[in-house]
Amino acid sequence: MRHCLFLGDAHILPEDRDFQARLSSFLLSLDGAFDHLFILGDLFEFWFGFAGYPFQREYGRVLDALRQVVSRGTRLVYFEGNHDFNMGPIFSDELQASVYPDEHHFEVDGRRWFVTHGDLASARGFRYGMYRKLIRNRLTYGLIGFLGPRLVLRVAGKLGALSHQVYHTPQAYNQERYSAYVNEQFSRGYDVVIMGHTHRAEVREQEVRGRSCLYVNCGDIKKDETYVTYHTGKGFRMERGLETKGKRTAC
Ligand SMILES: [Mn+2]
């Protein structure tokens, strides 16, 4: 894990043809420069890993780009968001991605990374906590799988709208709750907290009891075109712009 790229929160809709093309060209232009591509959740406005359903019609352009990226030797690491979950066989088998539904820890260059989508911070609130438990459990997954893609995709827009209603609230985006959540990971001994979900890109150093800790958020790759890179020896860097590699500008 010497060269990593972190992106997320595009909330891609099937009709986002231009953005899908733009993101695909960007991903292809990376041309194996990164050994790991981290997707930090909510890449899609709705994803559920139905068995045997390829999502080619909805998200084909992006999936084909991911296939290319993986075939060039980049490893895909997917953190599920609150709009894309139970990633299923396309990600686990075909793309050989490491998929994490909640959080995961890595030790990289002697520092401990805590990585997650970020909605777990709001899951401590009662309303979102209940919603998350209701949606993300085996019984619901079984029911969604049973109903099948045709029916579920038709109501997915409504589910998405419900999720927006539940978590796009002042309480859910309560800054204090996020800061407390991030600080808690630092006090548990993690040096770097990496997440998305808030749609606010940031790379911020902060001192925690004499230790230098880092908060990293990749922001929204569709609206703001932000993402974050990590290179051994250089550290984390926030970047902006989906121009193909070589013409990118740092912000
Ligand atoms: Mn989210």
Topology, please?
Layout: E1 3-7, H1 17-30, E2 36-39, E3 47-48, H2 56-71, E4 75-79, E5 84-85, H3 89-94, E6 98-100, E7 103-108, E8 111-116, H4 126-135, H5 138-147, H6 149-167, H7 175-187, E9 192-195, E10 202-208, E11 211-217, E12 226-231, E13 235-240, E14 249-250
Manganese (II) ion (MN) is lined by residues 41-42, 81-82, 117, 119, 197.
Which structural traits does this protein have?
Purple Acid Phosphatase, chain A, domain 2; alpha/beta; seven-stranded mixed β-sheet; 251 residues; binds manganese (II) ion; 14 strands; disordered C terminus; single chain; five-stranded mixed β-sheet
How would you describe this structure to a colleague?
The protein has about 250 residues and is of the alpha/beta class. It has one domain: Purple Acid Phosphatase, chain A, domain 2 (4-Layer Sandwich). Helices cover about 35% and strands about 25% of the residues. The chain contains 7 helices and 14 strands. The strands form 3 sheets. The chain has a 7-stranded mixed sheet, covered by helices on one side. It has a 5-stranded mixed sheet with strand order 7-8-9-11-10, covered by helices on one side. The chain has a two-stranded parallel sheet with strand order 3-5. The protein is globular. Residues about 245-250 have low confidence and may be disordered. The structure holds manganese (II) ion.
